Amino acid sequence: MNDITVPLLGIAGAMIVGAMSPGPSFVMVARTAVSASRGDGLAAALGMGAGGIVFAIAALVGLQAAFLAVPALYLGVKLLGGAYLVYLGIRIWRGAREPLAVSQEEGSPGTRGNGWRAFLLGMGTQISNPKTAVVYASIFAAFLPREVPLALALAVPAVIFCIETGWYSIVALALSSAAPRSAYLRYKAWIDRAAGGVMVLLGVKLLSGARGG
């Protein structure tokens, strides 16, 4: 049981930090919630979750096959993953004071929109982001055992879906209301710095672990 719980909790923790880090997905869901409707924002959040499942399955299958074929690749990916997470954390920290490009261009919160279109837009935004693929591969390489048990392989996509959909649903619900939206924008710099700092620490931990074993 510990063989499943420990890596699953590690992946979940890292993915929560990754999901909360600002990027194209956040902006898309935020703008959808602000300019269309709360329902469209939630549909976009479901699209993010669906895209997360695609990435999770691809990372699980690809990494598992590659590690079994080339054992040395496990160490290499771990090193590259740690370095990338440090780089990403520094980028998030340095961009903390940059304004978030969320504007109300069409309609207003509460306007009826197209939920199916918002879902596809959310899924497409998630899948088309190459940085997301690298983050998934980095996190999975760091926490997955060399041979992944079936129970863990089934649990990971479900957990990823819940994290991605849950976080972006919170974003949609919050930013479709004026007061929470203003509060987030006011404290964006502190939130981004916290997320960037955690990402850097995670990357350093991966690099140290790879060097030690």
Question: Can you characterise this structure?
Answer:
The chain is mostly helical and 213 residues long. Helices cover 81% and strands 0% of the residues. The chain is built from nine helices and no strands. Helix 3 packs across helix 6 and helix 3 (38-69) runs antiparallel to helix 7 (150-175). The protein is globular. The two termini are 23 Å apart.
The proportion of residues forming helix, as a percent range, comes to over 70%
Largest sheet: none
As a percent range, the share of strand residues is under 5%
Q: In terms of quaternary structure, what is this?
A: single chain
Spans of at least 5 consecutive residues whose pLDDT stays below 50 are: 103-112
Q: What's the quick description here?
A:
The protein has 213 residues and is an all-alpha fold.
What key attributes describe this structure?
213 residues; mainly alpha; 81% helix
List the helices and strands and how they pair.
Elements lengths: L1 H19 L3 H12 L2 H32 L2 H23 L20 H13 L2 H14 L6 H26 L2 H9 L1 H25 L1
Helix pairs in contact: 1-6, 1-7, 1-9, 2-3, 2-5, 2-7, 3-5, 3-6, 3-7, 4-6, 4-9
